[in-house]
Specification:
The protein is an alpha/beta fold and 261 residues long. It is 44% helix and 19% strand.
Length: 261
């Protein structure tokens, strides 16, 4: 089984990426910091290493330099949230195998990891990822994910789809309202703070329109006034980022059960 090391200081990103690539057939190990990632690289000998560009203390480029000192032929992909052309040029100079900007689709990331894992390396025998063999009838319940961070949106859609929901994703509030009118989702999972139309305004508009489905708010904010305003609009649940995925699934299930009742 192909071993993949993921290094990202965002716990939710790590969990979602781990779930995604595990279902693609990879043996996934994760690290929440550059230092931990370097230690795991030394001890685990991954076939591919996926690095977040922006991390405290040791960022992705610094970690890439350390990895190159250990193994000049290591297969490394950098995931560049907020990356500039300078960052990408620095990574290319260090012979990174690919540089994926976070605004790109999840399919591009998966294709890049699959492709890099099959590259020939000195003395290394690799196996292609094993396709996901899970099958089963898909649930009719639908979930609309609204998050302006493309990677998080794509990963949550993938995560929920693999658990039997019909999941859709949009990146802004206006598109969210349009999708609610078009597909009538059973649950809307919306980030509270987004540019343009914020999630709290989406919630307020849905309440004014009499939307009958469940609404779950996600937020990284700890502003008590803002949280109080969100609760006053009557969401079914408010989850603090990074979201615990088990709690997210439980919240969705409870919303659906309550609707049936």
């Amino acid at each position: 089984m192909t071993k993949l090391l993921i290094v990202d200081d965002d716990r939710m990103n790590c969990e979602l990426l781990q779930d995604l690539f595990s279902r693609q057939g990879y043996d996934v190990i994760v690290a929440m910091s550059g230092r931990e990632g370097l230690d795991l690289f030394r001890t685990s000998n991954p076939i591919v290493t996926l690095l977040d560009l922006r991390m405290p203390e040791m960022d992705g480029l610094t970690l890439l330099k350390e990895i190159r000192a250990i193994d000049p032929h290591a297969r490394v992909i950098i995931l560049g949230g907020g990356a500039t052309d300078v960052h990408e040029n620095q990574a290319r100079a260090l012979q990174v195998n690919d540089f994926i900007r976070k605004g790109l689709s999840l399919d591009i990331l998966v294709e890049a990891v699959n492709r890099v894992s099959k590259l020939p390396g000195p003395g290394v025998v690799t196996q292609p990822p094993i396709p996901d063999q899970e099958s089963g009838q898909q649930s009719m319940e639908s979930v609309l994910v609204v998050d302006d961070e493309s990677l998080v949106c794509d990963l949550l859609v993938q995560f929920l789809s693999l658990r039997g929901y019909r999941a859709f994703g949009v990146r802004n509030g206006q598109d969210a309202l349009r999708m609610v009118d078009e597909v009538h989702p059973d649950v809307v999972l919306v980030d509270m703070i987004m540019p343009g139309m914020a999630g709290i305004d989406v919630l307020r508009t849905l309440r004014d329109k009499g939307y009958p489905g469940g609404i779950i708010i996600m937020t990284g904010s700890h502003n008590e006034e803002l949280l109080g305003e969100a609760w006053s609009l009557g969401p079914h649940e408010l989850l603090v980022k990074p979201v615990d995925l088990d709690r997210l699934l439980m919240a969705i299930q409870l919303v659906l059960v309550c609707r049936e009742c």
